[in-house]
Design brief:
2 domains; 5-stranded parallel sheet; serine acetyltransferase, domain 1; 7 helices
Length: 301
């Protein structure tokens, strides 16, 4: 035990003590559950047989979301000391404490107003999945079964919190659904209307990705960075635009990798599976790698 305590004291960056705590994984899981019920009432949560039941259910859920989100936003702002840096968790300045509470209240209020707009985007995402997948038999199947919808529903909510400059909480929301679906979307990414991720496992969408309307990508696609400039101390420079842009109506097939902040895939272009793209492509093109040579070898040989 003494060696473990010594290790904890020797590596304070990966240990945290004091009165200031980070947002809670457990509370975030509850928050996601309540939010998904607001996004898809009747599909997730109790059966809603009448309009009065819908109204009562929405009122109850809104109260739970407000309570949890306010608590977790306060924790996020307090933990990040309202200035973008983790400070000494033992010290809480009264003025800073008040500022954290004020920021949390403003972010919570603003976020709740975005939910109707997020629902409109998700309705288009669900329709895009149905239109783009020949295996889909009904819109309900999309909502109940497709990991793309689960990932996008949480991403679109987290993106609103990211836009409101809430620290760490948007990342924790996206990572929770990443663990469930295998779809890794940074909350800072910008994704347009009617987006569909088919299958989804292994998809990575970086922080500064821009995706236009009516785009479709398949499993194993990476929209990532090509290089990471470093500062004078040898640390990766933060805040740069380092991920690609997909213009409207782009399709990217399974296993493709597209890298770089200056890489733009033009509208209506298709990117074949397994290709590696690090430069821009004009609109209305098809990007394909050289055809692989297939060898057939008899078992008798």
């Amino acid at each position: 035990m003494s060696e473990l305590l010594s290790s904890i004291r020797s590596h304070p960056a990966i240990a945290r003590t004091g009165k200031v705590v980070s947002p809670s994984d457990r509370q975030i899981s509850s928050l996601i559950g309540y939010l998904r019920q607001l996004l898809f009432p009747g599909f997730i949560g109790p059966v809603l047989a009448t309009e009065e039941q819908v109204e009562d259910h929405v009122a109850q859920l809104t109260g739970e979301v407000t309570r949890l989100l306010l608590s977790e936003c306060e924790a996020a702002f307090r933990y990040w000391r309202a200035d973008g840096e983790v400070g000494d968790p033992q010290l809480i300045d009264p003025g800073l404490e008040a500022a954290c509470i004020e920021k949390a209240e403003a972010a919570t209020s603003a976020f709740l107003k975005t939910i109707p707009r997020v629902r409109e985007l998700l309705a288009l995402d669900v329709q895009a999945a149905f239109d783009g997948d020949p295996a889909a038999r009904h819109l309900d199947e999309i909502i109940l079964c497709y990991p793309s919808v689960r990932a996008l529903s949480v991403f679109r909510l987290a993106h609103e919190l990211f836009q409101l400059q809430v620290p760490v909480l948007p990342r924790m929301l996206c990572e929770a659904v990443h663990r469930e679906t295998g779809i890794d979307i940074h909350p800072g990414a910008t994704i347009g209307k009617s987006f569909f991720i088919d299958h989804g496992t292994g998809v990575v969408i970086g922080e500064t990705v821009h995706i236009g309307d009516r785009c479709k990508i398949y499993q194993g696609v990476t929209l990532g960075a090509r290089s990471f400039p470093k500062d004078d101390q040898g640390r990766v420079t933060k805040g740069l635009h380092r991920h690609p842009t997909l213009e409207d109506d782009v399709v990217v097939y399974a296993g493709a990798t597209i890298l770089g902040g200056d890489t733009v895939i033009g509208a209506r272009t298709e990117v074949a599976g397994g290709v590696f793209v690090t430069s821009s492509v004009p609109s209305d093109h098809f990007v394909a790698a050289p055809k692989a040579r297939t060898r057939l070898i008899s078992r008798e040989q």
